[in-house]
Amino acid sequence: MDYQAVLEEVAATAAPQVGRGQPAGYIPALAGVDLGGFGMAVADVDGSVTGVGDWQVPFSIQSVSKAFGLALVLARDGESLWGRVGREPSGTAFNSLVQLEYENGIPRNPFINAGALVVTDRLQSLTGDASTSMLDFLCTQSGNPAVSFDPQVASSESEHGDRNAALAYLMASYGNLDNPVPTVLDHYFWQCSISMSCRDLALAGSFLARQGVGTDGSRLLPARDVKRVNAVMLTCGTYDAAGDFAYRVGLPGKSGVGGGILAVVPGRCTLCVWSPGLDLRGNSVAGVAALDAFTSLTGWSVF
Ligand code: DON
């Protein structure tokens, strides 16, 4: 596969979508971001990485971190997580409160905010420092020691984090958090604030295409668990747009309101695309268009 030629064609196809949509206005530090950015990277399972556009420009990974959080907890703790969080699509917004009370404080899946707060709580119990353990993992797997938290984004989100706090306190009232709510929220916000490029994220997610083996050759997860993470990404990774994402792209994917999307072609490569303009469900408009173009051009969807 001539990745460079494919990426250039994909970028040209997605170009009319760049600048469309809105930034994540509810996080002030992200509200003013320039909507004109677009980058995309492919990390092949052989370890090579190819990119186009702003593929080396760091952006706020936001909910893309939720895919790594799930993998880190499954790697350390196996199946017990599933007693505290489900694995069904929610059909509601990523920060919705309504289902949580009906379902007794058990979030629908680990990729909506409530579910990721439970995952963060478990990672905190397992490691003693959930956000640093995720950052260390991302630095190692991307091979880039400069991957870092963005304190401005973390504190901006913390100052405007009433909805996440409401989700966390509601779950605490059902006994579904082990650590104090402020601790869980802090680590969750720090994880979301991590700043990385498409290059870094595609490499860091390589284990998802390599049956659990990371870029450093170490086994991070059994192949069986990688199948499970990819399945939850496919069904829940883009929230109440997961059906549309599967229809258009046909790959496991995890989006974030920073405009990034990580997608996996099992056995072949990991893709990361970034463009900050979001649709109404919080997914990058140009990012989804680019992934649609990539799988249409290559035929590399899981279907
Ligand atoms: O908690 C939040 O709302 C954000 N830190 C993350 C949300 C997000 O990225 C949803 N993704 N599309």
Automatic annotation (TrEMBL):
- What SUPFAM superfamilies does UniProt report for this protein, alphabetically? beta-lactamase/transpeptidase-like
Pfam families documented for this protein: Glutaminase
Keywords noted in UniProt: Acetylation, Hydrolase
- Fetch the InterPro entries from UniProt: Beta-lactam/transpept-like, Glutaminase
Question: One biological-process term from Gene Ontology?
Answer: L-glutamine catabolic process
GO terms (molecular function) for this protein are: glutaminase activity
Which positions in this protein are listed as binding substrate?
S63, N113, E157, N164, Y188, Y239, V257
Q: What is its EC number?
A: 3.5.1.2
Per its record, the protein catalyses: L-glutamine + H2O = L-glutamate + NH4(+)
Q: How does it assemble?
A: Homotetramer.
List the NCBIfam families hit by this protein, alphabetically: Gln_ase, PRK00971.1-1, PRK00971.1-2
Tell me the protein family, please. Belongs to the glutaminase family.
Q: What is this protein called?
A: Glutaminase
| Protein source organism | Streptomyces qinglanensis
